[in-house]
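HUMAN: Now follow token order:
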Amino acid sequence: MKEFLTRSLSGIIYAFLIIFSLIISEFFFTLIILIFTLLALIEFQRVLSFLNPFPAIFLLIIFINFYLGNFNYKIENLLLIIVLLTNSYLIYDLYLNKFNPINIYHKLLLPILYISGSSYFIIATQKISYDFSYWITIYFFSIIWINNSFAYFIGKKWGKNLLYKNISPKKTWEGFWGGLLFSILGSVFYHSLQTNFELWIFISLGIILPILATIGDLIQSKFKRRVKIKDSGSLIPGHGGFFDRMDSVIFSAPFFYISLKILKNVS
């Protein structure tokens, strides 16, 4: 019970800071995501046992240029392609189910592309279309939070069949399907509040985002298993570190961003 209350309170504070910053202004939202990502970046580099300042410098550069409006679509599209290729490689590495040693390429490139590069697309959704405003980003976070929360609670209560035993001994298929179901219900609810997309689009996103979130969490878990640690940090009571809390969001962001761009052009 104590663990549940601690986890819930930490999650509420984390969610409040993100949603409140979104409503207040683009600057505060960008600042909050920058701070959270920097903390996640530091924790990831500690997992890799390779601290260097270049990923943080790169993160600052792309966030500042985004806020100032200096990015043109060609640079952004190039970054998107590179990040999607990087995250696709991580999916492939997860599929191999082998615990190969972390090499120098992981240490040099993944903090820049997997963490800093992917995180850029969390804030970039704000400028895809004026029609979206901040609600689309709230939707993105909400569906991932709904999925993670219900997957955790249902898996803890009724989970028996492990999803990926060698990497995550607590994730179950029961939890996965429970999180997916409530994510779809959450998407249907969001559809009733807006006029941008049809119902089938929201249902599709309600299926895709939980799958991406689960993959992102498993990728993070695999890195932790490689170095035999439970959590990436201890800054968020009940959740671990910021990398533990943001892994699903960071991994999913570029895929969500390109989905929105495609949907906007089709619409």
